[in-house]
Amino acid sequence: MDANDFVVGISGEAGEGVLVTGDLLTQIAARANLHISSTQTFPAEVRGGQSFVQIRIGVDSVYNPGDRLDVIVAFSQLAYHAVKSSASSEAIVFVDGDPDEIDITAMFGDWRGGPVYVVPMGKLAAEVGERRAKNIVALGAIAAHLGLPGEHGEALVRRFFAKKGDAVVRPNLAALEAGRRYALERLKKRDILTVPTVPGDGYMVM
Predict the structure, then answer these.
(1) Is the pTM of the predicted complex or chain greater than 0.85?
(2) Confidence at residue 203, expressed as pLDDT on a 0 to 100 scale
(3) In angstroms, rounded to a whole number, what is the distance separating the alpha carbons of residues 177 and 181?
(4) Element (H, E) at 192
(5) Strands (E), the chain
C-alpha cells in the first residue's frame, strides 16, 4: 500500500448517504492539495440495493479510479461482502458495528488483507441526535485516520447542510466530530496509511 497513491471504496445501501460521504471525502482531499479520480455506482432498484463510491487519491496526478481497493468503508457487513473481492492484499476495512460485540475473527475469518477497524457509526450518530448521520460519522473517522485536515471536513459539512438550517447543521457537525474523536482516541492504528502533507491552496473540484 502506498500513502502517495491509494484507493478508497465506500459501500452501503441506497439511502445511507454513501454518495454524500464520497463527495465530501473527495472535496476534503482536494482541499488538502491531493489529486482525485472517482466513480459512483447507483443501484438498479427503485428502492434499496447497494451504492458504491470509489475514490483514488494521489499526491501526484491520477488518471483513473484504480482497480483495487486499499481502504474499504462499509456501512454494514453486507456492504463489506459486496466489495471485499476488489480489495488489495494490504487493504484496511472500516465497518459499522459495536466493537464490544463483534468477533472480528469469526465475522471476518475470510479476510486476507490488513486490519479491520470496527467503528460504531450508527451508535455514535444516535448519540448526537441524528441517526441518519452515520455516514458523517464515517467521514470524520476515515478522514482523521488518514490524517486529512479536520477543518476542511467541518467547512464542507457546514456548506453542504447550510440550506437545511442550523437544526440540521449542528448534529451533523457533532457526528463528524464524534467520528474524528473515535478514530483518534479509540482506534489503535495498525496500518501505515497516513496521507502526506502537500503544500498549496487547494484544488477546485468541479
Answers:
(1) yes
(2) 67
(3) 6
(4) none
(5) 5-13, 35-41, 50-58, 69-74, 87-96, 116-119
Residue pointed to by grid coordinates 498549496: 200
Residues 172-181 pLDDT 10s: 999 999 999 9
Core vs surface per residue 148-178: b (16+ CB within 10 A) or e:
bebebbbebbeebbeeeeeebbebbbbbbbb
Instruction: Give me the helices (H) in 63-108, please.
Output: 77-83, 104-107
* 8 A C-beta contact, residue 52 and residue 10: yes
Judge contact between 32 and 202, C-beta under 8 A: yes
Work out the end-to-end distance of the chain between its first and last CA atoms, rounded to an integer number of angstroms.
28
CA 182 from centroid of its chain's CA atoms:
14
Give the span between the Cα atoms of 182 and 148, in whole angstroms.
15
Cα–Cα dist 135/52, whole Å: 13
Residue 124 grid coordinates: 455514535
Q: Residue 206 has what pLDDT?
A: 44
pLDDT on residue 202: 73
* 75, pLDDT greater than 80: yes
Crossing angle between the packed helical segments 134-146 and 166-185, to the nearest 10 degrees = 40
| 130 close to 107: Cβ distance less than 8 angstroms | no
